[in-house]
Amino acid sequence: MSIVYLNNSYIPMAEAKISPMDRGFLFGDGIYEVVPSYNGQMVGFAPHIDRMNNGLSAVGIELGWSHQQWKEVCDNLIEKNGSGNLALYLHVSRGADTKRFHAYPEDIEPTVFAFAFEIPPAPVPDKSKVVGYKVATHRDLRWERCQIKSTALLGNVMHFQHGYEQGANETLLYNERNELTEASACNAYIVKDGVVITPPVDNQILAGITRHILLDLLRKEGSIPVEERPVTMDEVFDADEVWVTSSSKEVVPVIEIDGQPVGDGNIGDVWLAAQTIYSAGKLNY
Ligand code: PLP
User: Fold this and answer.
1) How far is the centre of ligand 1, averaged over its atoms, from the C-alpha of 209 (Å)?
2) Candidates 247, 248, 252, 285: which one to mutate for ligand 1, based on the most atoms within 8 Å of Cβ?
3) Fold annotation for 127-284
4) Contact 43, 283 (CB under 8 A)
5) Is 81 touching ligand 1 by the criterion CB < 6 Å?
6) From first to last of its 285 residues, what are the pLDDT tens digits of the chain?
7) What is the CB-side half-sphere exposure of residue 146 using CA atoms within 13 A?
8) What DSSP line would sit under 193-220, residue for residue?
9) Burial tier of 168 (Cβ tally within 10 Å: 0-12, 13-18, 19+)
10) CATH number of 3-118: 3.30.470.10, 3.30.390.10, 3.10.129.10, 3.10.530.10?
11) For the chain, what are the domain ranges?
């Protein structure tokens, strides 16, 4: 996992250097993506790059790379780092400035960095092979632009740390109306009476690519109804099942929230059906 891409070069990680005046370093001024790849096959490459381009335009970083340019970087990283189970981390910062000044500088060259890191093998739809998450909860104290996949992740990091310090795998977040938003690094769902319910895409959550693929596959398959609507934390605590999703983890069942069992405390049948549908269809995205 040691060969990385930095500004047109493939070099060992130890040789990759950026300026301390890089606005990614000084301000967290950048956009990133994480694309999973199993045995050389990427999941959701096109929607991941579309989301990065949307993020770059939202913050006014002009990079202008085509999907093909990103594909070449990803393919090269896979080739240079072994094609096992990898996450491809793609990062664009606004670039290195000569001074520390908040306004966007003109004529600045973005810094493009990408590397690969190993992830666990793709989850299998088998209750005996998955470990359910125990999660904590916290009022969502991040900013109101959570749809932007910004490299400025301190809010998410602090929420993750809150759960981590209690031995939890994730932290579920809720807004001032006691409505579920997402988790610190995942989207969140409940299952009630066989219906999968997840908060709608808006400024309070990241529009997860796993979420997009999962909901699309479930709707096409048709046996599990899906609703996108606000979900209160009372509904979360009363749910039959709770899941979180992200690119490197796919669909993860949650078995305990703040020390309380979810449903009967076991991994649910709807999770099994959903992960089965996801595993079968994910490579079409
Ligand atoms: N929400 C947040 C805050 C995230 O950081 C992530 C992934 O990193 C997700 C949701 C899930 O997004 P995706 O499915 O695209 O990995």
Assistant:
1) 7
2) 247
3) D-amino Acid Aminotransferase; Chain A, domain 2 (3.20.10)
4) yes
5) no
6) 589 999 999 999 999 999 999 999 999 999 999 999 999 999 999 999 999 999 999 999 999 999 999 999 999 999 999 879 999 999 999 999 999 999 999 999 999 999 999 999 999 999 999 999 999 999 999 999 999 999 999 999 999 999 999 999 999 999 999 999 999 999 999 999 999 999 999 999 999 999 999 999 999 999 999 999 999 999 999 999 999 999 999 999 999 999 999 999 999 999 999 999 999 999 999
7) 26
8) TTEEEEPPSSTTS---HHHHHHHHHHHH
9) buried
10) 3.30.470.10
11) 3-118, 127-284
Task: Kindly report the pTM of this predicted structure.
Answer: 0.97
**Which residues are annotated as catalytic?**
32, 149, 182, 206
Closest Cα partner for 34 from 186, 201, 199? 186
Sequential DSSP letters for 35-101: EEEETTEESSHHHHHHHHHHHHHHTT------HHHHHHHHHHHHHHH-SSEEEEEEEEE--B-SS--
- If one counts every other C-beta atom within 10 angstroms of the C-beta of residue 67, the result is 13
HSE value, Cβ hemisphere, 13 Å, CA-based, for 240: 11
Question: Per the structure block, which two tokens stand in for 77?
Answer: 């990283």
Distance between Cα 185 and ligand 1 center (Å): 5
CATH fold match for the domains 3-118 and 127-284 = no
Q: Please tell me the distance from the alpha carbon of residue 119 to that of residue 130, in angstroms, as a whole number.
A: 15
Contact 98, 76 (CB under 8 A): no
Residue tagged 């002009």 (tokens): 62
CA atoms of 135 and 133, how far apart (whole Å)? 6
Nearest CA to ligand 1 atom 12: 208
Residue entry with tokens 């300026």: 19
